Amino acid sequence: MNIVQPFFKQCSDTPDALAFSENETAISYVDFKHRVETLGLFLQKKLIAGSCIAIALDRGIDSAACIYGVLSAGAIYVPLDIKNPAVRLNFIIEDAQARYIIGSGKAPEWLEQSEKWLDINEIFQQNKKAFMPVELEKTQIAAILYTSGSTGTPKGVALSHQALFNFSAWATQTFSLNNTDCIASLAPFHFDLSIFDLFSSLSIGASVHFIPDKLSFAPSKLTAWLSEKKISCWYTVPSLLSFIALKGAVETTDLSALKRILFAGEVFPMEHLITLSNLLPEVNLYNLYGPTETNVCCYWKVDRARLKLGESIPIGKAAGDAVLDVDNETSELKVQSLNNFSGYWQNGKLSALASSPYPTGDKVSLNSRGEYCYHGRLDRMLKCSGYRVEPAEIEQRISQLEGIAYCAVIGMRDKTSGQRPAAVLVLENGVNLAVAIKPLRGLLPSYMQPCKFIIVDTLPTLSNGKIDYLAIEGLFH
Questions:
Q1: What's the fold here for domain 382-475?
Q2: Tell me: the pLDDT tens digits for 257-287?
Q3: Same fold, 5-377 and 382-475
Q4: Distance between CA 304 and CA 292 in Å, rounded?
Q5: How far apart are CA 448 and CA 74, in angstroms?
Q6: Cis geometry, peptide bond prior to residue 15 (ω within 30 degrees of 0)
Q7: Model pTM?
Q8: What is the domain class of 5-377 according to CATH?
Q9: 315 CB-near residues (< 8 Å, 6+ apart)
């Protein structure tokens, strides 16, 4: 099994069909295949199967070709968010023990292991030769997606070819995708939503259209773009859909081609969901749920008649083959599925799973319809604009700053991004807050930057000496 095989078959069926469009560039299935083959053949000569290849490119045609080429060669792709601070990028490269880092042009200054850099432009200039993807065991690792870690450092979620294929096939069937679909893609490739864009789409001959980054901040221009491209399906996060519902000029834009919107990653504010559903009455809306470790394990097709202010929507019923269980004492949702990850990737190796089924850390209940309902986290993890954020990682970085004696981080509710981190600090004598936290910009990505700081003399604690996070939350209200 190799997750790219359905794409190669599709190339035989519809070689001249549009595969991707990015700004003014469009590429057919057969031309995209030539790029994939060129890179796959190049890598196969230089590495052993199972090597990790980091990809230092923004989402787009070249990055997608790299992912398919890496997988075709039997290697593992590790997508990097090149907007992240250098310290975070280099940690991921070192932890993954990446054999190579693929990017565009010369090695960037931030890269500590510049001898491992490969310029994708030079590779694509090599002679094109036919190349068949390497056949692998279904349990072989295909991707490592690094998320925020509770230990204070990013951790790699290792996903097998079977996990990617199982989700891809389920999504294709469940949402009735076909070769006439035009799919909008905005999810960065280090985000698990991108698995749908990359693999469900090309397995059935659909076209994928990359949304320009600048449109994320211009909702009316974004809806105009959706109209122009005749987008029929889009998988994204509620915060962006809320933005569109409020300021996207949806009522005056022709979105008649749009058939389905899938959303995941955070709770959709009910007032905004109602607005969107009223603006797009003919569009099927789906709430998808699942941490990166399970991909999608629950889903719910939005029933407009059940949308009421002050209430929340369910996460629905099991997706695909998922077997769901709820702990009687903690109400924690546990998931067993072929979608599940294979373990965490640490120091170039796969760690054994601590338990199976996977404990999500999310509190749920079953309603009278047999649907699962989400009631928040059992631990401290935050969901910020769809990203999973561990406060412990932010706390560790802040604590390393000069002049910071102690710190604690909690999440504040935010109408657009779901949650945003906020920090309580104890400063050393004579320290200026603005000066102390200035280096933080180079240590954490933007979505992990605290939106607010409060200075206290001492952190509130419980009787056992542990930090009283409930009391800290009260400081922000």
A1: GMP Synthetase; Chain A, domain 3 (3.30.300)
A2: 999 999 998 888 898 999 999 999 999 999 9
A3: no
A4: 28
A5: 33
A6: no
A7: 0.88
A8: alpha beta
A9: 287, 289, 298, 299, 300, 364, 371, 372, 373, 374
